[in-house]
């Protein structure tokens, strides 16, 4: 089933509306997948981005996709092959650090809603011209943070972003207060130290705090 750019953005916008924070997950131990997803969903963060940065990432997506209430996506999509593998693993959406014509075409052909990355007004305008109006602002802090994103929003108010990259509990509110931000991506809600100890209650607590961050 193919997907248009506009439909892709509509779907990713719906996913971003589920909670103020989308956990950005780098999971190296497959045994952590299900309890991690259960803790995050129980804490109020149902949209989960599993980055394709570890050998078990696709298996993690498969395991998390079975958790009730979760909406699991694949992050760090770079090639058409990544897209096909993510769809086969059960990913419901994709996230990319940037965007190429080949990657966009692959996601559209596979019917995978993509949150494409943009860091400049030119990149955002190129995606907008193709039909995307929901994007990832990455790397957020390195690209100027909330002030830069607010500035981009002035001439391009029709674009909504999910800033990711350097977002923390301390600066998340500054991003979420912007009119052109739907949610933010953050890794602090799933720290490796807590996962290593199996402290899923601790992760659920972090998720619950993040789920209550105000937007707009």
Automatic annotation (TrEMBL):
It comes from the Bacteria. GO terms for molecular function: 2-dehydro-3-deoxy-phosphogluconate aldolase activity. Pathway: Carbohydrate acid metabolism; 2-dehydro-3-deoxy-D-gluconate degradation; D-glyceraldehyde 3-phosphate and pyruvate from 2-dehydro-3-deoxy-D-gluconate: step 2/2. Its EC number is 4.1.2.14. CDD domains: KDPG_aldolase. Keywords: Carbohydrate metabolism, Lyase, Schiff base. InterPro entries: Aldlse_KDPG_KHG, Aldolase_TIM, KDPG/KHG_AS_1, KDPG/KHG_AS_2. It holds the Pfam family Aldolase. It catalyses: 2-dehydro-3-deoxy-6-phospho-D-gluconate = D-glyceraldehyde 3-phosphate + pyruvate. Belongs to the KHG/KDPG aldolase family. Homotrimer. This is 2-dehydro-3-deoxy-phosphogluconate aldolase.
């Amino acid at each position: 089933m193919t997907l248009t750019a506009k439909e892709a953005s509509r779907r990713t916008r719906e996913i971003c509306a589920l909670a103020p924070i989308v956990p950005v997950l780098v999971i190296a131990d497959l045994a952590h997948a299900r309890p991690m997803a259960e803790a995050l969903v129980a804490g109020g963060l149902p949209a989960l981005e599993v980055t394709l940065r570890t050998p078990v990432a696709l298996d993690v997506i498969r395991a998390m996709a079975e958790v009730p209430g979760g909406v699991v996506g694949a992050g760090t999509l770079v090639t058409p092959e990544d897209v096909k593998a993510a769809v086969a693993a059960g990913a419901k959406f994709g996230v990319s650090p940037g965007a190429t014509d080949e990657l966009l075409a692959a996601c559209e052909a596979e019917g995978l809603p993509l949150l494409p990355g943009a860091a400049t007004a030119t990149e955002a305008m190129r995606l907008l011209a193709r039909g995307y109006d929901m994007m990832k602002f990455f790397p957020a802090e390195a690209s100027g943070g909330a002030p830069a994103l607010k500035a981009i929003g002035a001439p391009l108010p029709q674009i909504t972003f999910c800033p990711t990259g350097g977002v923390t509990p301390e600066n998340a509110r500054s991003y979420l207060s912007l009119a052109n931000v739907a949610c933010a991506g953050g890794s602090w809600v799933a720290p490796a130290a807590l996962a290593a100890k199996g402290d899923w209650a601790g992760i659920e607590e972090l998720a619950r705090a993040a789920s209550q961050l105000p937007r707009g």
